[in-house]
Design brief:
single chain, about 325 residues, alpha/beta, Peroxisomal Thiolase, Chain A, domain 1, five-stranded mixed beta sheet, four-stranded mixed beta sheet, 11 helices, binds oxa(dethia)-CoA
């Protein structure tokens, strides 16, 4: 058995900033409502038609690989988490292999929405610990803006989400006291429809059904979220899965140097912070600038925190996520 460690981090967000005031010009919303309920001031939306979930992921990945001190030829495996893939199939993992001109390494796509990066890191951790692979690239990337209902009808969802990408390289670590200590994954599929995009899917509505019906009131291809229900579950599951990770490693909340919660809603992060009695500098949030970037939110936040010198050797760093599925999880790291 080896240990595994995050050796490189990178992120990329599109240049185009969309403020709350910008949104209030296209739908019935206000800066005040959005900030009060979510903490978000602005988010990024792609405005270059050639930019995709994969192309942003590739940009983040290049930075992460370089910072790991590696070459793309050193990467043994790719894991790509997204809910907004370039194509219905194949997933973006193989597009990264192509666009980075890598060897024919394996590429795995993760469909766990907001928990996608945590699930991806957990899978990478197991492969590296078992000795199967030495360096794994884990990417979380999303283009939400092209799939949102940017009218008043969709405002409860559309104001929250933003575009962006983050990446990490997970590498073999010989020192058993350092690196990823454990990961903890959960799901509860009975709530699958509480946060979902139903179409296009083979279950209820395929593309041909949408085209046939030409129904201007069809909302099946826009995200649906039962906001308050999701919120209530999120605060409970975040807390549980962080505690599960701490207990597994005989740690307590005071041991957390930095908690990186999935950036779902600033109010959720604040609830969790309060519950664990954490100080402001023990929790990193950037939802104010990027909104909720789903699978990309943790790697973007972790990279930013690392760039600002907030992650130091020996620190206990906790990643935690909750989202559609429902799925949730945590990763406990000794940096
Ligand atoms: O990352 C995946 C996990 N996602 C989450 O964790 C998100 C969890 N949920 C939330 O963050 C919150 O539920 C929201 C921020 C999405 C919504 O906040 P809320 O306090 O639950 O609002 P609500 O949906 O109960 O709506 C309250 C009111 C409604 O009006 P009425 O019925 O009281 O007249 C909505 O129509 O706010 C209205 N509303 C808006 N008003 C202005 C909903 N969206 C907007 C908007 N601007 N964008």
């Amino acid at each position: 058995m080896y240990n595994s460690k995050i050796t490189g981090l990178g992120y990329y967000v599109p240049d185009h900033v969309v403020t709350n005031d910008d949104l209030s010009k296209v739908m019935d919303t206000t800066d005040e409502w959005i900030q009060e309920r979510t903490g978000i001031k602005e988010r990024r939306h792609v405005n270059d038609p050639s930019e995709t979930t994969t192309s942003m992921g590739v940009k983040a990945a290049k930075i992460a690989i370089e910072r790991a001190g590696l070459d793309k030829s050193d990467i043994d495996f790719i894991i790509f988490a997204t809910l907004s893939p370039d194509y219905y199939f194949p997933g973006p993992g193989v597009l990264v292999q192509r666009d980075l001109e890598m060897d024919t390494v394996g590429a795995l796509d993760v469909r766990n929405q907001c928990s996608g990066f945590v699930y991806g890191v957990s899978v990478a951790d197991q492969y590296v610990k078992s000795g199967m692979y030495k360096n794994i690239l884990v990417i979380g990337s999303e283009v939400h803006s092209r799939g949102l209902d940017m009218t008043t009808r969709g405002r409860a969802v559309s104001v929250i989400f933003g575009d962006g990408a983050g990446a990490a390289v997970i590498s073999r670590e010989e020192d058993a006291s350092k690196g990823i200590l454990s990961s903890h994954l959960h799901s509860e599929g009975r709530h699958a429809e509480e946060l979902t995009v139903i179409a296009p899917g083979m279950g209820k509505r395929w593309v041909t059904d949408i085209l046939r019906d030409e129904d201007p009131n069809d909302e099946s291809y826009f995200p649906y979220m039962n906001g308050q229900f999701v919120f209530k579950n999120a605060v409970v599951r975040f807390s549980e899965v962080i505690m599960e990770g701490l207990q597994k490693n005989k740690l307590s909340p005071e041991d957390i140097a930095l908690l990186i919660p999935h950036q779902a809603n600033l109010r959720i992060s604040q609830f969790v912070q309060k519950k664990f009695g954490l100080a402001d500098d023990q929790v990193y949030n950037n939802i104010v600038s990027y909104g909720n970037t789903t699978a990309a939110s943790i790697p973007i936040a972790l990279t930013e925190a690392w760039e600002k010198g907030k992650v130091k050797e020996g620190d206990v760093v906790v990643l935690a996520a909750f989202g559609s599925g429902f799925t949730w999880g945590s990763v406990i790291i000794r940096w």
